[in-house]
Write a structure and sequence with these properties.
single chain, mainly beta, Jelly Rolls, four-stranded antiparallel sheet, three-stranded antiparallel sheet, 1 helix, globular
């Protein structure tokens, strides 16, 4: 699980480093043609690390910042900015509905604030004949750069459309055309729409890996740089 702030910052859960498993006092027990090992792990106080929640500069989606150990995850944000936040849950093995033996895992989300169900699905094996919509609030800046995850991919006959805040189409993409691509957006919002046909061929879907902003405060610097070039010429 991770959060995306209204300005495009990524916030990750608390993480614990795994304890070492290479110093185990092993006792072999023969059972038929197999050998079963049992014993105690020599865990030292120095092996136990404090939990961490800060990872990188919060400016991109970093897989090493996920919590891969616990089935209960917590994301805390100090002084959260005002606006609409996205809560994203990524499943390693996700099944639609539940299977006969009841082994499909169910996920629940709890928050101090009211949660609103959204059509926005950041990553998924998406369902056929479906339409997935995700809106990213980019804020009031000169321009923005949105980078898609290298895994971004849609199946044959499926399309990803990008729109600005005026509903103007910015681009249409198929297959892996958006994989790792950096898109320049001059808009306060980016809407990503995935349209799937019913041929049963689905891809990974889409995922935004990084959001960058160029603030208006850089305009005077750009003007001075352009002026200096003109004077030199």
């Amino acid at each position: 699980m991770y959060l995306i702030s209204p300005s495009g910052k990524f916030f990750f859960p608390w993480r614990l480093e795994p304890l070492p498993t290479d110093n185990i006092d092993e006792e072999g027990i023969l059972t038929g043609d197999m050998k079963r090992l049992s014993g105690l792990e020599n865990i030292k106080v120095s092996d136990i690390k404090d939990a961490e929640r800060y990872c990188g500069a919060n400016d991109e989606l970093r897989y090493e910042c996920f919590d891969h150990l616990n089935n209960v995850e917590v994301v805390d944000v100090d002084n959260p900015e005002k606006g609409t936040w996205q809560v994203v849950v990524r499943g390693t093995r996700v099944e639609v509905g539940n299977n006969k033996d009841g082994s499909a895992q169910i996920a629940s989300i709890a928050s101090d604030f009211i949660l609103i169900n959204s059509e926005c699905q950041i990553t998924h094996p998406y369902a056929p004949q479906s339409r997935l919509v995700c809106e990213y609030g980019l804020g009031d800046h000169l321009e923005h750069f949105v980078t898609f995850d290298p895994l971004t991919f849609v199946g044959s006959g499926d399309y990803i459309y990008l729109y600005n805040d005026s509903e103007r189409l910015l681009g249409t993409y198929t297959g892996s055309e958006l994989a790792g691509k950096r898109i320049k957006v001059k808009s306060k919002k980016l809407k990503v729409v995935l349209d799937s046909d019913n041929d049963g061929i689905e891809g990974f879907g889409f995922c935004v890996k990084k959001i960058e902003h160029t603030p208006y405060s850089i305009l005077p610097l750009l003007f001075e740089a352009a002026k200096q070039v003109d004077e030199e010429e």
